[in-house]
Amino acid sequence: MKSACRSITTSLLLAFATGTISYAQLEGSKPDAQPVNHPVPAIQDTETPAQRDARMEWWREARFGMFIHWGLYSIPAGEWNGKRTPHIGEWIMNDLSIPVADYKAFARDFNPTGFSAHDIVALAKSAGMKYIVITSKHHDGFAMFDSKADPFNIVAATPFKRDPLKELAAECKKQGIKLGFYYSQDQDWTAPGGDAYKTGDHQPPTYHWDKAQDGDFDTYLHTKAIPQLKELLTNYGDFPTVIWFDTPTANMTPARAAEIVTLLNQHPNLIWNNRLGGTYKGDTETPEQFIPPQGYPGRDWESCMTMNDTWGYKSFDTNFKSTETLLRNLIDISSKGGNYLLNIGPDSKGIVPAPEVERLQQMGQWLTVNGEAIYNTKPTLFGAEAGSFSDTEKDKNGKPKFIPAWNWRSTTGPNKVYIEIFHWPDGTFHLDKMPRKVTSAYLLADKTHKPLKVTQSGDSLDVQLPSKELDPIATVLVLNTAP
Ligand code: FHN
Measured from the CB, is residue 197 less than 6 Å from ligand 1? Predict the structure, then answer.
C-alpha cells in the first residue's frame, strides 16, 4: 500500500514537472481534512472563527492583488547561450541546466536602475489592486532583499545595492496598500541542499544538475530559509501581511514545516497560503492559472494568473490576454468569493512591460466606475457554476477555454444584488429565481442612477434595460433589495 501511494505521488510530481498538471491540481490531490495533530499547532488550528474573520477581513474585502515575479532571471529573459526556453522565464536556470556559478554571475550585471517602488505601487493602485505580493526569493535562491543570512542577494551581490522590498514597504505604507512576500522555502537551486524539481525530463523532485547544489536539506533550512524568513518577518515594519510559500517537496515534512510555523505564529495577523507543506493547510487555497468552477466553499481562495505565458519576464513572450478576459476573470472570481492575484514581470531594468501597464490601467478604469460591485462583496446568490475556464478544453491559442454558461455574473451586497452583464440582452434582463424582493434597479455606470422598470412576480424578475450597454466588457446592473 505504502509503495502504491509513493508511486502515485511520484507520478503526480512528474506530471507537474513536465507541465501536464499544475501545482494547484497536484495540491488538490491531497486529502481535504485539516489534521489536528500538527507537531506545532498553527494559528489556523487554535484561533476562534471570530478571530479568523478579523484576521482575514482586509484580505476578503480586497478581491484584487498584484503578484510580482522579479529576479535575476529577468536578465536572460528566457534565453541563454542561444537557447530559448519554451517554459516559464523564472525556471530558466532549471530548464536549461545552467550551472550555479554561471547563474550566480548574472548578479554582477543586475542593475535595475529603472525600478521605482513609487511607480509600481501607484500602478497597483491605479489598477484598483489592494495588495501586492512580490517574490522575495524564488527557486533560483537569489534574495531580492538585504539578507545577512546569505550573500546571494540584491544588496550584497549586485551593483544596484538597493533593497527593493524596503522601498516597496515604504511606498505601500505611504500609498495605503498592503505588501506580502513570496518565499520559495523548499526549492533553492543555488544553495547547497536546497531542493529542485527537474522539468523537461523524468527526474525525482530533488534532482540536481550541478555538484554545487549537493548538500543537506536541513542545513539549507537552518542556515538560509528560516533565517531569511526571520529577516522578512522582522525588517519591514508593518509588512509583510502575507507570506506566499511555494512548491513544497516531500522534504518539507510536518516536523520541518513546524519549525517555520513556530516562526509564523509570532506574527498573529499574518496570512499565509496552503503551499508551506507538511500537512499544514494555511489560510488560502491557491488555484493557479484557472478559476475553480465552484470556488472553494468554506475556504478562502485566490486564483493567481499570468497576463501572458510566464511569471518572470521573457523578452519574446507577447501572448498577452485581453483586458476583457482579465476583467471578466476578476468578475468571475469575485462572483465565486475568491481573490485574483494577477502577475506582472518587470524586466532587468525594473521596468514593467508596457502591455501589462496598459491592461492594468484599463482594469482600473472599469473598477473606478464599478468597484462597488467587486470589493467587499459576497458570492452570487444564483449558483457558482456560471461559466468558467475549462480544465481540459483549449482555445485557439492553446489557453484554457472560457465556457460562458451564462452571459453574466453576480455579486452580492447586504441590500444589493449586482449583475455584471457580459453580453447585453435585447430589451429585458430576466431572472428565473430571484430570492430577494427588488425595490429598484439602475446601472452602476449611469451617474444619474436613472431607475429602470422592474417587474417581479414570485421568483421571476424582469428589468427593462436601455438598448445599449454602457461598457462592452461588463455593464453592472444594480438591484436594490429589501432587507
Ligand atoms: O514554480 C512556481 C512558478 O515559478 C511560479 O512562481 C508559480 C506562481 O504560483 N508557482 C510555482 C508553480 O506552481
Answer: no
